[in-house]
Amino acid sequence: MGQPTHALTQHDWWRSAVIYQVYVRSFADGDGDGTGDLAGVRARLPYLAELGVDALWFSPWYLSPMKDGGYDVADYRAIDPAFGTLAEAEKLIAEARELGIRTLVDIVPNHVSDQHPWFRAALAGGPERELFHFRSGRGAHGELPPNDWPSQFLGSAEPVWTRLPDGDWYLHLFTPEQPDLNWAHPAVRQEHEDVLRFWFERGVAGVRIDSAALLAKDPALPDFVDGRGPHPYVDRDELHDIYRSWRAVADAYDGIFVGEVWLPDTERFARYLRPDELHTAFNFSFLSCPWDAARLRTSIDETLAEHAPVGAPATWVLCNHDVTRTVTRYGRADTGFDFAAKAFGTPTDLALGTRRARAAALLSLALPGAVYLYQGEELGLPEADIPLDRIEDPMHFRSGGTDPGRDGCRVPLPWAAGAPYAGFGSRDEPWLPQPADWPAYAADRQSEDPGSMLRLYRAALRIRRTTPGFGDGPLSWLPAPDGVLAFTRTDGLTCAVNLSERPVDLPEHTQLLLSSGPLDDKGLLPQDTAVWLHA
Ligand code: GLC
Prior knowledge:
This is DUF3459 domain-containing protein. Helix content is 25%, strand content 13%.
């Protein structure tokens, strides 16, 4: 059982935290109806404490028609009945805290569900139209969309405008069931600040901000044309004022933010992390980076260099509910991640991918800053192939069926090898089918196996919590052969990762703290293996 930690009294816990993402629908099914729920999470809190995470980030658990897995929110102040009740969420937050675990909720400010009361009132012709982007179309009869913006679901041929029977069009960067809010309207700002307070009042420690760089739109909604000049809806300067007001709300509760900011320009990215804006943002360049020593080193160096001037800690992320699972990605010819490159039937060597994912776990947990884990990553779950007739993700449908979508990383977790549905639930079939070999990945089985991914994560998080040198702080590279990443932190902590084909000597040390796989018979570090050492 994990110790209630040090960290609850620590004001800057988030600078070094390990935060575990819970996608409730697929985590654990407490009432047996095939959908994960808060009862399931509450029953597994001891598992999460034993794993040793500092906080849980819940993907949206609010009332939702689930047209985009809950990222289509109909009421920010209500829990979806499939998951439980608000009272249960409050209990969960309190129970997690008892175990030394903080809670983060997920706010989706760019859009709401088309079932949100505001949008329903807007459709009925009310003044709520001003809270969205309604426009007349182009062409002689308004039959063409108001502008040429591309969909945010990459590869999608679908327009971002939908026409209503009355002839007007409304904007939705994602699906038609997710109308975009008009952030130039004061009521939209007011409402979100109230929602933040609502959750901070209920004891949450932080908020993940969905699609954080997309909220503000050029009021003229001009064509995108050739991408020169300020983008009409990505990373607009107006956003910073919005996040400065959010920061003031969070500061009153000692709450923190983590932004979902996908931006290639590192200087623009870092602007969101200035001291009076967001505390942290996800590091998607590290997530997307191929398993290649030189590329990883560049990604790490650039990450640290871009965060330093604003004083924000980096985050290290290998996967989440939107991307291909790590062991699968690292077992493919192309080990990077790119939404546009997703395809059916990509050949995968899972043994290779798992070896690399184990090494990547030790690498990311030794880097300066905070780490995000996505549920099932600690079990080494692979991306699942979902039968075509069971796919639910709109990304698949909006691509015209070429993109497999994101359901493959959202399959209900295996908890008990011998139980029905690998212990996810008890009665009804899980909402997404589990692959036949899922029991082999079950948490109970891995718990007994010293060589399992789960045991590696438990050991790594325990060492990370109890050994000085981890988390926020400086990093110095050590001289190392080509294809090897080796660095020291403070207090004699050293990490080495061999991505070259040849076994290499371990850096100088007095103690081997942990290795992601066995050393060879000469005591050398083999390919795709990482170690933590004490010098
Ligand atoms: C974010 C979420 C993703 C969702 C999208 C629209 O990228 O992570 O799951 O589909 O926003 O809300």
